[in-house]
Amino acid sequence: MTEARRVRAVELFEEGASNAEIARAVGVCAESVRRWRRVWEEGGVSALRRRAATGRPPKLDDAQVEMVRAALARGAQAHGFEADLWTLERVGAVVEQKTGVVLSRASVWRLLTGRLGWSLQRPERRAVERVESEIARWVAHEWPRIKMGPWTHVPGSCSSTNQVSPCCLRSAAPTHPVAGPRCCGTA
After folding, report:
1. Separation of alpha carbons 35 and 29, rounded Å
2. Does the pLDDT at position 162 exceed 60?
3. How many CB atoms lie within 10 A of CB 154?
4. CA triplet 30, 33, 35: central angle to 5 degrees?
5. pLDDT tens across 48-73, in order?
C-alpha cells in the first residue's frame, strides 16, 4: 500500500502538483511527501521502491533446509538416537552433521518453527508396564469405592467422642478400621 502511494506521488510530482495536493490525494501528511520528493529528486523512482529486508542472511540456504527436512523425516533413531524423539540438541546435531553449520538452540527453534513449519509436541508419559484392562477395572470398581470415602453414610451415627451405644455393637452398621463400629441410629 505504501509503495503504491509513493508511486502515485511520483506521477503527481511529474505532473507538477504541490506537496499539499499530493498529500491530500494519496492520504499522507505533507512531511512524508516532502521526504519522498527529496528522495525522488536524488535517486529517481527506484529510490522510492520497496527494498528487500535487511539483516543477517540465514545460515542455511533453501537447499540445506530441504536436506535437513529429509533427514528429520527419517526419524531420530535413523540418526543413532535411542528414542524416536526430536529435541533441539538432537536437531542441532543433525543439522551440523548434514550441513556443517552449527546452530544455537534458538536458531534450531526458528528453523523448526519458521522454515520447516514444525510445532512443539510433548510426549505423553506412560509407564511401560501399563495394562489398559487393569486400569479400566480399577476405574470401574475401585475408584467409586475410594471416591465414596471410608464410611458408608448411616443416619444417626455416633460421635467419635461419645461412647458407642449397645445397639451399634449388635447392628450390621459398617465398621471403620480406626474409629470402630458406627451407630445404626436405633438407640
Report:
1. 10
2. no
3. 16
4. 110
5. 887 777 788 889 999 999 999 999 99
